[in-house]
Amino acid sequence: MKKILVIGAVGQIGTELTMELRNLHGGDNVIASDIKLSDCEKLNVSGPFETLDIMDKNAIVALIKKHNINTIVDLAAILSATGEKNPTLAWNVNINGFINVLQIAVEYKIQQVFIPSSIAVFGPGTPLDSAPQETVLKPTTMYGITKVAGELLGDYYVKKYNLDVRGLRYPGIISNETLPGGGTTDYAVDIYYSAIKYGKYTCFVKEDTRLPMMYMPDCLKASLDLMNADFSKLVHHGDFNVGAMSFSVKEQAENIKKYIPNFTIEYKPDYRQDIADSWPNSVDDSAARNEWGWKPSYDLDAMTQDMLKVIGEKHKLGLV
Description:
Blueprint: E1 4-7, H1 12-25, E2 30-34, H2 41-45, E3 49-51, H3 57-67, E4 71-74, H4 80-85, H5 87-107, E5 112-114, E6 117-118, H6 142-161, E7 165-166, E8 168-170, E9 172-174, H7 187-197, E10 200-203, E11 210-215, H8 216-228, E12 240-241, E13 245-248, H9 249-257, E14 264-267, H10 272-277, H11 286-292, H12 300-316
Helix pairs in contact: 1-8, 5-6, 7-9, 7-12
């Protein structure tokens, strides 16, 4: 039986992935943890929650012993936009915290470590269209630097210690459940909330900014599919490209106008534009498709319809 510790469970992906894992393995077998408490009632009542700082190695060990943990999901991270404001903190959490997890995993014979990477690993020199699985990785943000280092660390521990480390290069993740927390692709989520609440949106990147995106149900599916894949069949480990859709902000806005005709948008690019410009328009995810059968389910229009429906219902109830 899997006994899973999710570190960083309060974040955008962490909240929903924890719930999916609890649905699969039982609430008591998936321990949510984060440096801050959750305000998500479902997360709090569906299973154990522990306050945890990933920088505190002894505290991680204590939880592993307390709950007989055999799988660690490390979602603790300082994201791209926030990381540019505090690069040292981003390095400490994203790298030193991850090294804590890896060292503990070897010492306590953890069966699997899952840690996301990101399209932030890409930068100048990476092809803009269908960025390859194997390509130049020269990111321009501290977040991207930590994710490249994290991929290399994961591969090192696979080869040196035969530790099962797995990860995906997440694109921008769009969700109607938990708000994002300081990423460059946050606009692709915020636009739906603003469309419902105000009928307008001011975007912090230009209208022709095109980036790889993924709807949360596909993000959860990709994560779980990789976690459940046969380790012996994986050629890659911590750095899988995963794609679902790519669109510009203008295309996203036009898609919203199909359902909210009076919606308007204006553009006031800020420092996040340079970050977005350093990332590719789309990715080649053939390695994920070939090695563990990745296939997305949502395109832009299907996602937009679902986002507007769910957020609209929440707005009527005064929840957003």
